[in-house]
Amino acid sequence: MLKDLYQLAKDCIWAGRYKRAVKKAKELSALFNMTYYVILMGGKLKVVPKRNLKDLIARRRFKSGTTIQDIEKLALFIAK
After folding, report:
1. DSSP code of 79?
2. Which domain holds residue 66?
3. Model's pTM, two decimal places?
4. Each residue of 30-76: pLDDT tens digit?
5. Beta partners for 78?
6. Domain count within the chain
7. Among the four residues 19, 41, 49, 54, which has the most C-beta atoms within 10 Å?
8. How many whole angstroms separate alpha carbon 76 and alpha carbon 53?
9. Residue 21 pLDDT > 90
10. Complete DSSP assignment for 1-69
11. Using only C-alpha atoms, what is the Rg of the chain?
12. Residue 5: what pLDDT?
């Protein structure tokens, strides 16, 4: 019973953070006319523009062989 309540609280917090990240991605996408991704990095939700991800891939920030399509598949939300 207590475990279920704890899990419910965690789920509610996660839902709020997800909604906030999606809202931010939509606003930035409309403002700058760019594609933004909501991705999970380091246990936190990050809102990142596609252009920055391309630069990070070019600088080999991700493991070898990672493409923008791989990141798109892992993205939780894509704001175009």
Report:
1. E
2. 2-79
3. 0.87
4. 999 999 999 998 899 999 999 999 999 999 988 999 999 999 999 99
5. 37
6. 1
7. 49
8. 15
9. yes
10. -HHHHHHHHHHHHHHHHHHHHHHHHHHHHHHHT--EEEEEETTEEEEEEHHHHHHHHHTT-SPTT--HH
11. 15
12. 93
